[in-house]
Amino acid sequence: MRITKHSLAGNTPYSTPYYVVESKRPGPVVMITAGVHGNEVGSILAAKKLIEQLQNHEVSIRSGTLVLVPVVNQQAYRKRIRGKPDLNRTFPTKAGGTAAHPLSQALLRLAKRYKPSWVFDLHEANGYSNVNKRVLGQSLLTHKQSQAMRAVQQVKRHLNRSIEGRTRKFTIIKRHKQGSFRTAAAKLLRCRAVTVETSWEMPLTTRIQYQRRIVACFMRKAGIQITE
Predict the structure, then answer these.
(1) What are phi and psi of 102, to 5 degrees?
(2) 203's torsion region: left (phi>0), alpha (psi -120 to 50) or beta?
(3) How many structural domains compose the chain?
(4) Mean of the per-residue pLDDT values of the chain
(5) What range(s) does the Succinylglutamate desuccinylase/Aspartoacylase catalytic domain occupy (predicted)?
(6) CA-CA 20 to 30 A from 148: which of 13, 24, 188, 190?
């Protein structure tokens, strides 16, 4: 397994590290992003923990390639804010369109370069979607015709079997969100794209655990096995 560190939007005020993890066996390319919104700390810390474990050889991937951007929006993360403008509204909405922010431009170029078959965008949100359909906390988002739908359903069932009570169980939300990275990846790059949303209502350690479990489940479904 080989890990290389690079800079996204390098030589700009928005520069942020990303990592390419290559196994010794051929396989799919999976892209994981976190920190599109700087106040969604649980997802960021889960992504940082994954790259730390890979670098320390505590875990490894058995096949394929992982492209990981642990903190997309460093400026927003340092201030612990969502970000101004909201980066997840600046991606192009149609073929030939241009991203409206240097970071979204750079992230889309990175995805085009590596051509991932799967994209997982890690987020956090208010509330519990199983209790209030107007909120996103504890949900997995994709769109109705997504080729990822079967994997999303399987991951949801797997997670929910170990979650007691209805409140914290995950739901599936099927919709496009124009201007988001997930929707751009799905519509423009034809990736199997999923947004993961854990709930701010839970303790930080719990949210990190959920994020890490979800990532491991989805990577297995995508064909990249994480081993300890």
Answers:
(1) -55, -35
(2) beta
(3) 1
(4) 96
(5) 26-155
(6) 24
The pLDDT tens digits for 60-106 are 998 999 999 999 999 999 999 999 999 999 999 998 899 999 999 99
* Cα 155 to Cα 177: distance, rounded to the nearest angstrom: 22
Closest CA to 117 of 28, 226, 2: 28
Q: Encoding tokens for residue 182?
A: 């997930």
CATH classification of the domain holding 178: 3.40.630.10
pLDDT at 224 over 90: no
3-state SS, one letter per residue, for the chain = CEEEEEEECCCCCCCEEEEEEECCCCCCEEEEEECCCCCCHHHHHHHHHHHHHHHCCCCEECCCEEEEECCCCHHHHHHCCCCCCCHHHCCCCCCCCCCCCHHHHHHHHHHHHHCCCEEEEEEEECCCCCCCCCCCCCEEEECCCCCCHHHHHHHHHHHHHCCCCCCCCCEEEECCCCCCHHHHHHHHCCCEEEEEEEECCCCHHHHHHHHHHHHHHHHHHHCCCEEC
Contact assessment for residue 17 and residue 6, using Cβ atoms and an 8 Å cutoff: yes
φ/ψ (deg, to 5) at 114: -90, -15
Distances in Å between the Cα of 118 and the Cα atoms of 32, 61, 156, 204, 221 are: 8, 15, 17, 26, 10
pTM (whole model) above 0.85: yes
